[in-house]
């Protein structure tokens, strides 16, 4: 299977980004985003100036998107943070792994010393398994920090990996 092409996204990609992120936000089971967010607000969030946003394409089809940003300012600006979303059709095609590898490379290239995920919903087992395989460690657990639409209150994880 060919590797996806990953490129930087911009405002011209707003429609494709909305098509990817809105169903995930609406589901309310992996992102701490109001499921009733408008399409415009969702795109503004994903493309906000503090983020660099990327698109993954395979065979001319948009299969995923992710953003990279500083996790904190000031003394914490050397640690980056990412958010990833893949299309339902992307499962089993290596899109998530490719975006993760790309984000690790981009993080290093931009001078970040580590990558941290602040709020990984504990029921998002596919993502957790992917991050574990990539060398991320769970460094914190926030008990009952996320209200899952079907599972009730579940934990959120803080996951971390050095880039040096």
Short description:
The protein is of the alpha+beta class and 164 residues long. 28% of the residues lie in helices and 37% in strands.
How would you describe the overall organization of this protein?
- With 164 residues, this protein is α+β, with helices and mostly antiparallel strands.
- The protein has a domain of 111 residues: Aminopeptidase (3-Layer(aba) Sandwich).
- 28% of the residues lie in helices and 37% in strands.
- It is built from four helices and seven strands; from the N terminus they run E-H-H-E-E-E-H-E-H-E-E.
- It has a seven-stranded mixed β-sheet, with helices on both faces.
- Helix 1 crosses helix 2.
- The longest helix has 15 residues.
Features:
alpha+beta; 28% helix; single chain; 4 helices; Aminopeptidase; globular; 164 residues
Q: Which topology of the domain at 5-115 does CATH recognise?
A: Aminopeptidase
Strand content: 35-45%
Quaternary status: single chain
Mean pLDDT: 95
Q: Nearest-angstrom radius of gyration?
A: 15 Å
Secondary-structure-derived class: alpha+beta
Q: Which sheet architecture does the biggest sheet show? A: 7 strands, mixed
Based on CA inertia axes, which overall geometry fits?
globular
Unreliable segments of 5+ consecutive residues? none
Describe the strand arrangement of the main beta sheet, using strand numbers: 1-2-3-4-5-7-6
Alpha plus pi helix count? 4
Q: Give the fraction of residues assigned to helices.
A: 25-40%
CATH superfamily (homologous) name of the domain at 5-115: Gcn5-related N-acetyltransferase (GNAT)
CATH class of the domain at 5-115: Alpha Beta
CATH architecture label of the domain at 5-115: 3-Layer(aba) Sandwich
Tally of strands: 7
Q: Which series of helices and strands comes N to C?
A: EHHEEEHEHEE
Q: Could you give the distance between the termini? A: 30 Å
